[in-house]
UniProtKB/TrEMBL annotation:
One Pfam family matching this protein: Radical_SAM
Domain (Radical SAM core): residue spans on this chain: 20-268
Name this protein carries in UniProt: Radical SAM protein
InterPro entries associated with the record: Elp3/MiaA/NifB-like_rSAM (IPR006638), MJ0683-like (IPR040086), rSAM (IPR007197), rSAM_sf (IPR058240)
Cited SMART domains: Elp3
Keywords, sorted A to Z: Iron, Iron-sulfur, Metal-binding
Species of the source: Paenibacillus gallinarum
Domain of life from the UniProt record: Bacteria
Length: 273
């Protein structure tokens, strides 16, 4: 697929945490757009995508020279109170362009020096392990949240064919854990998974966050409905899984292996600290 790449000079980087991210003082997006282009991505139905006039996943704005701006904004915001950052809410900070562009890495270099009170790194990419050296400098002020929506890679390919395979994400969680980086898995959205899912996760991660379309798309599932995601469940013969109660099946399975307090639901699972 041809991707339309542009370089943009951002005016601001730290945006106020609102809505689902109300527990955070700020969100931070190193890119605008996301070339993983997941079919279920609710950002497709947000103004940033709707007003672009191009299919979500086919374009990417690279926020160049971001490090100096973040440095300035961090110093300013830290004077006002605790700074807790969610990176990222409407892109993946470790998407393919990051291999070459290193925008996210440059932001982590700044945050290793001018440390926020807390940083949550939300990704589905094995590239995050490149930055273990910087994440280690943040100690307990950072947590890497790795999206693993299912243990079944054929299901993953149906919904997000351009995203990294599940096995690569599990290996990455293992590497992060070995390096002492606090981690969690985000089963978000809830895609159909097998009974073996908890056993796949248990050796590599202590915290499990479960979030679905109905709790997590910012519109009680309406954005997801507009995307026609229910049809994809039906095509696969998994229509029972497209239901507001389906996450409880996964939660129950996880709680057979994990202590109750280590399985968190929706917003609580993404909360800082
Ligand atoms: S990786 Fe995240 S931001 Fe990117 S398309 Fe998929 S769901 Fe959307």
């Amino acid at each position: 697929m041809n991707i339309d790449y542009s370089y943009k000079q951002p005016k601001t980087l730290l945006n106020k945490g609102t809505g689902f991210l109300a527990g955070y003082s700020h969100s931070l997006n190193p890119y605008t757009g996301c070339t993983f282009g997941c079919s279920y991505c609710y950002v497709r139905k947000m103004p940033v995508s709707l007003f672009r006039g191009k299919e979500w996943g086919t374009w990417l704005d690279i926020k160049k020279d971001s490090a100096a701006l973040l440095h300035k904004e961090l110093l300013r915001e830290k004077k006002k109170g605790p700074v807790t950052i969610f990176m990222s809410s409407s892109t993946d900070p470790y998407q393919p362009a990051e291999y070459k562009e290193e925008i996210t890495r440059s932001l982590l270099e700044v945050m290793a020096e001018v440390q926020p009170d807390f940083l949550l790194v939300q990704t589905r990419s094995p590239l995050v392990k490149r930055d273990i050296d910087l994440l280690q400098k943040l100690g307990n002020r950072v947590r890497v949240s790795m999206t693993v929506e299912t243990d079944l890679d054929e299901i993953r390919t149906h919904f997000s064919p351009s995203a990294p395979p599940i096995s690569a994400r599990i290996q990455t969680l293992r590497k992060l854990r070995e390096a002492g980086i606090p981690t969690q898995v985000a089963i978000a959205p809830v895609l159909p998974s097998s009974e073996a899912f908890p056993e796949l996760l248990r050796p590599v991660v202590d915290l499990v966050c479960i979030d679905d379309f109905f709790m997590g798309d910012g519109a009680h599932g309406r954005r997801t409905q507009q995307l026609g995601i229910q049809d994809k469940y039906e095509e696969l013969g998994y229509s029972d899984w497209y239901h507001p109660e389906a996450y409880q099946v996964v939660a129950r399975r996880m709680r057979e292996l994990y202590p109750e307090q280590q399985v968190r639901i929706s917003q609580e699972g993404f909360a800082p600290f």
